[in-house]
């Protein structure tokens, strides 16, 4: 195997993260089906975040709860390297998201982790916090070409860790951020310690509210005969949305 990043943190860090999730966010993990013992493409939804997203930590905990031992390489938005924290992301098992990086990870026998919604999904408003938004079908094409199953992992609750008033996509376009920084959303939010701000929370750490998190590791999904990448991507999104709807049915914000 080639040397590839692995999202498995050191033992002390893993224990710290899981304790934080369990105590502060009362995190629950539901493993709907075993993860196959061969490389898979993990597909996750965003809660809220940029450099930091609770759903990433929730995935790490869920991965361990599901008994996954195969290394996992995470595809991460380029903004982390633009902001100068890429080295930290790399030490935690992330790499700049690209087709070449994913190809290398699969070649090394790793699982690959993607968040297909990118900052569009990560910057959702409070109103859309329980809606999964994908941006493109590249992940589906990747799974088809490498002939690996897709394992969806859905987390509910992270979108309640602060109040997002607007996703700020219009503001991002006005500032030409999609071209300059590959940022398509500039959320207007209320958070601790930043108060009311535009975009800052997506780029800097914030103190999340003690929202309850629930993560479901779903059964594997494989491409159907003659299914286009777009059709597969939408089928995965619909399956994840249906699972998220169950997780959030009757949910009280923050309390779960």
From TrEMBL:
Signal recorded as keyword: no
Record keywords: Acyltransferase, Transferase
SMART domains, per the entry: PlsC
Highest taxon, organism lineage: Bacteria
InterPro entries: Plipid/glycerol_acylTrfase
Phospholipid/glycerol acyltransferase domain: residues covered: 40-158
GO molecular function: acyltransferase activity
Matching Pfam families: Acyltransferase
GO cellular component, one term: membrane
Protein name: Glycerol acyltransferase
């Amino acid at each position: 195997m080639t040397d590839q990043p692995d999202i498995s943190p050191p033992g002390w860090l893993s224990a710290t993260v899981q304790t934080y999730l369990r105590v502060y966010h009362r995190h629950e993990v539901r493993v709907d089906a075993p993860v196959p013992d061969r490389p898979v493409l993990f597909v996750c939804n965003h809660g809220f975040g940029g450099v930091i997203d609770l759903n990433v930590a929730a995935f790490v905990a869920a991965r361990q709860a599901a008994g996954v031992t195969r290394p996992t390489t995470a595809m991460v938005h380029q903004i982390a390297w633009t902001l100068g924290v890429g080295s930290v992301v790399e030490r935690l098992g992330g790499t700049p998201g690209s087709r070449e990086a994913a190809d290398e990870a699969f070649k090394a026998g790793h699982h690959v982790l993607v968040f297909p919604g990118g900052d569009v999904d990560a910057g959702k408003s409070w109103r859309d916090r329980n809606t999964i938004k994908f941006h493109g079908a590249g992940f589906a094409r990747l799974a088809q070409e490498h002939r690996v199953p897709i394992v969806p992992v859905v987390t509910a609750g992270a979108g309640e860790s602060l109040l997002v008033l607007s996703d700020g996509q219009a503001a991002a376009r006005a500032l030409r951020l999609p071209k300059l920084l590959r940022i398509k959303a500039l959320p207007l939010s209320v958070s601790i310690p930043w108060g009311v701000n535009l975009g800052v929370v997506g780029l800097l750490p914030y103190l999340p509210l003690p929202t309850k998190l629930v993560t479901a590791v779903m059964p594997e999904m494989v491409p159907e005969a003659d299914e286009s990448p777009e059709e597969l991507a939408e089928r995965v999104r619909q399956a994840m949305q249906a699972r998220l709807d169950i997780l959030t049915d009757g949910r009280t914000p923050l309390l779960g």
